[in-house]
Amino acid sequence: MPSGRRGPTRDVARPPRPAALAVALAALSLAMPAAAQVADLRPESLAGFSLEDLGNIEITSVSGRAEPLSSAPASVYVITNADIRRAGVTSLPEALRLAPNLEVARVTASTWAISARGMNNADNKLQVLIDGRIVYTPLYSGVLWDAQDVLLEDIDRIEVISGPGGTLWGSNAVNGVINIITRSAAETQGSFVEVGGGDQEQDVAARYGAKLGDGGHFRLYAKAFHDDGTQRVNGQSAMDAWKKAQIGFRADWRNGITVQGDAYDGRLDQVFPDDQRISGANAIFRWSHALAGGDSLQVQAYADHSELDAPGRPGLGTLSERLDIYDVELQYNMRAIGPHTLTWGTGYRLARDRVDNPPVLAFLPADVDLAWTNVFVQDVVALGHDATLTGGVRAEHNSYTGFEVFPTLRASWKPAADTLLWAGASRAVRTPSRLDRDLYSPAVPPYLVAGGPQFRSETSDVLELGLRAEPVPGLSYALTAFRHVYEHLRSVELIDTSYFVVANQMEGNASGVEGWVTWRVTPTWKLSAGGTTLRQRLNLRADSTDITGVSAAGNDPSNQWMLRSSLDLPHEVDVDMGVRHVAALPDPAVPAYTALDARIAWHPRPDIELSVTGKNLFGTEHVEFGASPGASVIPRAVFVNLAVRL
Predict the structure, then answer these.
(1) Are 324 and 305 in contact (CB under 8 A)?
(2) pLDDT at 48 exceeding the cut of 60
(3) Domain map of the chain by residue range?
(4) Which three-class secondary structure state does DSSP give residue 377?
(5) Residue 434: which H helix or E strand, with range?
(6) Per-residue pLDDT tens for 141-170?
(7) CB pairs under 8 A, 24+ apart, for 625-630?
(8) I need a labelling partner for 638 at 20 to 30 A (CA). Which of 72, 173, 207, 384 fits?
(9) What Cα–Cα distance (Å) separates residue 330 from each residue in 164, 326, 341?
(10) HSE on the CB side for 317, CA within 13 Å?
(11) Exposure string over 508-527, b if 16+ CB within 10 A, otherwise e
């Protein structure tokens, strides 16, 4: 693109606000009876689960192979199964609110804006996987969160990496990676039934697991829900109520074979007469094999089919999409050879996208086949004195821009057994989507928007410095400072005062600090807190004719923080509370808000749990994303749930 003097800059930095509510929440928990310190053996109990156990949780998202969280040279937060249960959340996006290194904003009843380290308006720089299946859509490089779901009871953990992960996970892993990992079928045996309802939504779910021959296990599940929708700022109904049903299965064998799949169907209300419809199905095959001498091999293949029908205003037609994705990946983990531990892999991904275009908007050509081919290698080198150096590179070929390269270099050092210092330098790339290259309006010439025929990949060069430690038993923390430098960000350029094209005339940088701390106050009481600060400077190049402005890429809070308290009481009662604060969004302007969520659960028997969850209990309805007066207001809500685990 042409070079030149930089244009106007938007500086969205604001000083962080004090966490005054932390004191109030701690005082409330301290007021609980002292007898709460009695040990408890129920599944969600804090007793017997130490911070050392958390540090030793094995994760795979950083190096591609299992390693303790305490040794991973990256900004990683792990949401556990117990975290999800005790928070009382009812959807994947709600569960992601538990990660302090993510921005999670509810837009409407069914849509969410989720990102790491900014760029939430663009919604296209986060790689999300569910059991190894990449779930972003090549239509616009984002995630359709209303189409993604699992039975929350079956989640083992969610590994949330803030920062680049392109070497292992490819394009889109620019600002972060979310890796959702469900438990094996052997870990979900027996029956599970859950029924819940409240003033905003109603849910039901069931699962059954059993042995499969001599060396296998399986599970089957079904779930359904209805969400009553939201209201706008002006008091009118947003007409966004929705309902969805999903079924699925998983089978695992001792020989390392896993087969699993899901199917779903949903209906979304809208202001137009006809509802939107989403549906789809996927199937995954995975084989993991330990080889002689300590090497290991994993092969994975999956197919993912999705359908979207979005009717427009009467007479303006329906946007319909039929998308089929086929993906195969091979990864080889080599045993240590001297100081070197190598991981390498290759993969191929094919997306067959078929669109029926309405007259006012079109993706042209309507039918395309897009392919991505990749090969990567990563080496972890033991330097001695508890220091390691990790270097890796991924070469990826895509249908739009050809070859792209994603390198990374990370160093770590353990000056003590309970302390990790690390630093990283990486380059991440977002390759074009159909929205970048193939968008036209109207569907026939003369065009007002004429695609982006020269649109190139967006890039980010990232520097990170991190610290993770457990200075005393029962207290652990992690802290990361980062700086991203972006080039070739998406803009919409006016050409000859007659039509627009999608181009790359925006650039900028983002820097900040993110961190979290966990304190085991007593064996039955745990406090955790975390937050981020973000200073984001984006600008259009001097020769840009963009009319959308930099807010099209980044509309992010300058800071956010959260505090959670988890307490086990006598008589089989759990109490969990969480406060989160999000600073104001600049453009479109959204006021800052603070929300309190709380849950109390009673276990009359070890296999029965009755819980009541209150959300937004401060009572102040608030907007989390979008422009007033049409933005949805997030209300106070109460949800009652009964779960039986046999």
Answers:
(1) yes
(2) no
(3) 18-645
(4) strand
(5) helix 434-437
(6) 999 999 999 999 999 999 999 999 999 999
(7) 625/105, 625/106, 625/107, 625/113, 625/120, 625/555, 625/585, 625/590, 626/107, 626/588, 626/590, 627/588, 627/589, 628/233, 628/234, 628/588, 629/232, 629/233, 629/234, 630/232, 630/233, 630/234
(8) 207
(9) 21, 14, 17
(10) 12
(11) bbbbbbbbbbbbbbebbbbb
Whole-angstrom Cα distance, residue 453 to residue 503? 8
Q: What is the pLDDT of residues 226-253, one digit of tens each?
A: 999 999 998 899 999 999 999 999 999 9
d(C-alpha 457, C-alpha 431), whole Å? 5
Residue 353: the pLDDT is: 98
Query: pLDDT digit string (tens) for 78-112?
Result: 999 999 999 999 999 999 999 999 999 999 999 99
Rounded to whole angstroms, the Cα distance separating 125 from 635 reads 29
Please state which of the four CATH numbers 3.40.50.2000, 2.40.170.20, 3.40.190.10, 2.40.128.90 is assigned to the domain occupying 18-645: 2.40.170.20
| Tokens found for residue 82 | 């117990």
- Which residue is listed with tokens 């039955």? 524
Using DSSP bridges, classify how beta strands 589-590 and 340-356 pair: parallel, antiparallel or unpaired. Answer: unpaired
Q: Which two tokens stand for residue 540?
A: 């259009």
Q: How many CB atoms lie within 10 A of CB 454?
A: 11
CA atoms within 13 A on the CB side of 376: 32
- The SS3 of residue 72 is coil
Residue type, 387: A
Q: Sign of the C-alpha dihedral, residues 36, 38, 41, 47? A: positive
Q: Report the SS3 class of residue 343.
A: strand
Residues 6+ apart with CB under 8 A from 170: 127, 134, 372, 374, 394, 396, 406
Token pair recorded at residue 590: 């959204």
Using alpha carbons, select from 74, 167, 71, 66 the residue that is nearest to residue 387.
Answer: 71
If DSSP codes are grouped into helix, strand and coil, which group holds residue 231? strand
Query: Which is it for strands 126-130 and 176-182: parallel, antiparallel or unpaired?
Result: parallel
Strand 103-106, strand 201-212: pairing: unpaired
Alpha helices in 98-188 (DSSP H): 166-169
pLDDT given at position 26: 38
User: Could you write out the DSSP letters of every residue in 299-337?
Assistant: EEEEEEEEEEEEE-STTS-EEEEEEEEEEEEEEEEPPPB
CA 584 to mean position of chain CA atoms: 22
pTM of the model: 0.92
Burial 45-63 (b: 16+ CB within 10 A, else e): bbeeebbeebbebebebbb
Place of tokens 């929350």: 152
DSSP state at residue 460: E
What's the gap between Cα 102 and its chain centre?
Answer: 8
Q: What angle do CA 354, 359, 365 make, to 5 degrees?
A: 35
Distance CA 394, CA 408 (A): 9
466-499: pLDDT as tens digits: 999 999 999 999 999 999 999 999 999 999 989 9
